[in-house]
Specification:
Blueprint: H1 26-46, H2 50-76, E1 80-84, E2 93-96, E3 114-117, E4 123-126, E5 134-140, E6 143-149, E7 156-157
Length: about 170
Amino acid sequence: MPTSAPGNRPGIRSGRPRRARRGFTLIEVMVVLAIIAIGVGLVALAIPDPARTRLDTEAARLVALLETARTEARVSGLAVLWVPGTDAQGDAFRFEGLPAALALPTHWLDDRVSAEVVGGVALTLGPEAILPPQRVVLHLDDRRVEIGSDGLGAFAVEPARAGAAS
């Protein structure tokens, strides 16, 4: 059953001229460009910052090392200190007071990482159960991460503060 009336079929000229359609309209091109821009923006936000990732890895590793040394200090009753800074052997940090059998790492995974103890030169890890609040700041390029403990709880990566460089 035909649905078009005579004279309305394609190819038959009516009273108005038909416009040949070529290419895309400006609106179509702008919509496509906007979709591409949104996609590129989302991909750029999803790509992690390599320096931030390295620093986060170092911070998590240092938290684990500090808690290991703190537990050993409490169990064995030893006074243990964590001291950052390169020493005569080229170690980036060291644990003073731990038995030689417990050989914890003394280097960063990335040689560009540096650490500073806030308000002192070393962290006290034991043997007391209650310690003063302590903080360490790790640096990599222009990035920084703070690790701290209130003295009772475990060491943990502290959330970034407003106005601090991340």
